[in-house]
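Note to self: the last two entries modelled the partners one at a time, which told us nothing about the interface. This time every component goes in together.
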Amino acid sequence: MSAPQTRINVGGTEEAIPNGPGAAAILAAGIGCAAVGILALAADASDAIGKLLNFYNPTGTLSGVTTVAILIWLVSWFALNGMWRMRTVAIGKVNVAAFALLAVGFLLTFPPFMDLLQGK
Amino acid sequence: MEISIRDLVTVLHGMGFGALFMLAFSGALAELYRMSLSSAPQQSGGQGQTLLNIYLVAMVILAWLTVFSGAYIVYPWYRAVPPAGLADLSDYPRRLLLSSGKTSEWHNVGMEWKEHVSWLAPIAMTMVAYVTLKYRNAITRPRNMRRAVLGFATAAFIATGIAGAFGAFLNKYAPVRGGPVIILIEGEK
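The predicted structure of the combined assembly is written out below.
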């Protein structure tokens, strides 16, 4: 948590800004991607959840899966940004978590992997 | 020369938004990678930085337009339920694909993956644009931040590629057709 602050050039003068807002955006993006996968799997595995996520009938469960995932992404971004706005955080650890969550998003949207998890 | 409304909107979704977004990746990835090289100039590039900012914001808008037009305009046409007993399923792409074992996996794997994985691209690209705009050329220095930006931009590219490729194949086997017809050019015969 003690990495040096990032310095950016604004109008010819250098300003120091913490990496917290960037880290918040990175981790939130990972959370949002994982949320798409987890919700897609949940809707596929459970009829009850699928019906619950059917926000707009012509689009079906996809409407709820993506709407809720976007809300989770934005809320987590807002919350993390609130916590880290003025802080410099260990971005290496944030990256590991974000990339792991991104991988979850890719894997859980892949139908053969979803079927494998459900024992289909 | 005529085209149906559904054809036109599908082309706008796939080619107008999706393919343009996909094409824009080459420029964005090249510029982000150039910025990440240690030998690249560290000072903010003024006009160059502004151009990159506009470019990335345009990509974010295209990415969101692609997924929203796909999910809320084209997808309902794709998954429409035909009346009972209808033999000609050509206006009902999902049912047409599922009606044969030779094409059903285009839906079960192709469409099911495409409809979800495509949403990773706008989420990832929004983050890439935000971080690049906020930190400007300074993302060249914290190594981990530039890794995240380049990694997520590449992931967005892959997600878009998966969605785009399956979209093109699905449209070959079961195109989304129908609706009012627009006559573009009237031929002599």
